[in-house]
Amino acid sequence: MNTTDLAIGILGASRIAPKSIIEPARELGHTIMMVAARNPERAREFASVHAIPVVALDYAALIADPRVQVVYNALPNALHGPWNARALESGKAVISEKPFASNADEAAHIFQLAARTGGRIVEAFHYAFHPAMARVRSALEASELGTVRHVEASLDIPRPTATDPRLSGRLAGGALMDVGCYGLHAQQTVARWMGDTLAIVGARGRPDPQDAGVDASFEVDLEFGSGASGAVRCSMEGARERLQLTIIGSSATLTVHNFVLPHSDDRVSVRSSAGVVVEHVGRTSSYTHQLAAFAPYLAGRDDIPPVHPEESLAIMRMIDEGLLAAGWKPRKHISTKPI
After folding, report:
1. Tens digit of each residue's pLDDT (9 = 90 or more) over 122-162
2. Is residue 107 packed enough to be buried (19+ CB in 10 Å), middle (13-18) or exposed (0-12)?
3. Contact 110, 84 (CB under 8 A)
4. Is residue 63 within 8 Å of 86, Cβ to Cβ?
5. What is the mean pLDDT of the chain?
6. 275, burial (CB in 10 Å: exposed 0-12, middle 13-18, buried 19+)
7. Is the pLDDT confidence value at 245 over 50?
8. 3-state SS, residue 26
């Protein structure tokens, strides 16, 4: 792949795909070539609405098609790992929705496969490419907040519908896997920018009434090597959407009001003894920023991955560790057989 225009195939006619890949691809001059879905009629409807020229017979057919250069995996969580592996085995570059796999062992296997085959794969923690997070990094590196004392990620979403895969234990659903992984990723990113380490010191989860294998809400307590504390609090039963990151320092507190979707609320506030300064850092979609960062690597023009495998592995290990700390088991791997 050495052209600017990437030919992208989408696994899953998902609700997120228009915002996460279709609109950014067209904005940046790439081609959405193909879509495949478990329900062929759903795939045809999706292709018609979004002007996608080809509907593949199934996931395997899309992956095997020589016209597709990059596979975007937007399937339910439990199918990220298996179909990421299948795409790599077919010689495709891959953009995987988060979380990268069902558990850390599965994620490690996939990255070993990528290393062995020379395949290129990146995990779509899109928010990390938005200027909002660049503002966080600059504040930390300049010690603008003083000594960091506490980092908190609060992530609430309204309850999904009863048939949503996020409420299925078999499909690796749950609050921690769905929204909580953003909080863990943000905590790990902050630790890296601080030159610090991060450890889980406690966790609690509340089973969902529909499926006891799913956590409706989850809390993770963290500790930085420097002595600062951290917390990730996430829920799929929120009265409204709240996706906030707060960093409390000895001299100031920084808040990213919607760190997961900063293009919908681009405020970054810094509160100090001098008052509150509210900055607006940009409404360009974080998904567009992400694809712009991914494209050179996926096209083979850049050999440095924009998301290092160790970052993705670290988050999967933290998810597993958090579940275990709360008395849950890591999510199970499933095959690529039809569900």
Report:
1. 999 999 999 999 999 999 999 999 999 999 999 999 999 99
2. buried
3. yes
4. yes
5. 96
6. exposed
7. yes
8. helix
Residue 229's beta-bridge partner residues? 150, 223
> Tokens at residue 96, please?
């995987």
**What is the dihedral angle through the alpha carbons of 279, 127, 261, 208, rounded to the nearest 10 degrees?**
-130
By the 10 Å C-beta count (0-12 exposed, 13-18 middle, 19+ buried), 203 is classed as: buried
Rg (CA), the chain: 20
What sign has the CA pseudo-torsion 317, 118, 307, 182? Answer: negative
CB 87 within 8 A of CB 73: yes
Residue 338 has a pLDDT of 39
Q: How far apart are CA 290 and CA 335, in angstroms?
A: 29
Pairing of strands 229-235, 70-73: unpaired
| CB-CB contact of 265 with 132 (8 Å) | no
Our CA angle for 24, 25, 28, nearest 5°, is 85
Q: What is the residue whose two structure tokens read 């001059």? A: 29
CA 326 distance to own-chain centroid:
22
Residue 136 · residue 245 · CB < 8 Å? yes
Report in angstroms the alpha-carbon separations of 289 from 81, 120, 184, 195: 24, 19, 21, 25
How far apart CA 197 and CA 220 sit, in angstroms, is 16
Return the residue matching tokens 């997120």. 16
Which ranges of the chain does DSSP label H, i.e. alpha helix?
17, 23-28, 40-49, 59-64, 80-89, 104-117, 131-141, 175, 181-194, 286-298, 309-325
Q: What pLDDT does 336 receive?
A: 58
